[in-house]
Amino acid sequence: MDKNINLHDRPVAQDTTFTLSEKEVQLEIKKNRIIRALYIIGGTISLALAILGIAVPGLPTTPLALLSAFLYAKSSPKLYNWLLSNKVLGPRIRNYQRRKGVTPKGKVGIITFMSIMVLFSSFVVVGPGAVRWVILSLGLIGGVVVAFFVPNAKGEG
Question: Sign (positive/negative) of CA torsion 4, 9, 10, 13?
């Protein structure tokens, strides 16, 4: 019963369509308009934060983009396909979906970059005080989440 469903009305790239198995990603488009609207609003807020995370140290870009993809998939195939075809965020989302996680090398890179940015923000941008401790604490929580809760990728490269 592992049938494939094509999530696109048209290809993501010129000659590429993205197909997921129904078991892997249960994309049930909600029929209730209010719930669909809430998913779209949540996906849009998450996407805005992901885009902001590209420039703001410590704000995670990829997890927020993944959340946007999930919420858009539940509400609007058009928005979901648009996000997957985005030049900046699309490859990250497709790579995560294809491999079902992040490689150990990728996790080290994420934690390293996040640590550098958190330390820079805490000790160069922000002066002594409570804000510094909040940034350091959130950075520590982010590192623990990436290390222990983000799934490890399956397969190679």
Answer: negative
User: Can you give the pTM of this predicted structure?
Assistant: 0.56
Which residue, 44, 47, 53, is CA-closest to 90?
47
End-to-end CA distance of the chain: 28
Q: Which one has a higher pLDDT value, 29 or 70?
A: 70
DSSP string, 91-124: HHHHHHHHHTSB-HHHHHHHHHHHHHHHHHIIII
Q: How many angstroms separate the CA atoms of 157 and 155, rounded?
A: 7
Question: In terms of Cα–Cα distance, which of 122, 70, 90 is closest to 11?
Answer: 90
- Domain assignments of the chain as residue spans, ordered by start: 1-99, 101-157
Phi–psi pair at 156, nearest 5 degrees: -100, 160
Rounded Cα–Cα distance for residues 51 and 117 (Å):
16
**DSSP code of 4?**
E
The model's confidence at residue 123, banded by pLDDT at 50, 70 and 90, is: confident
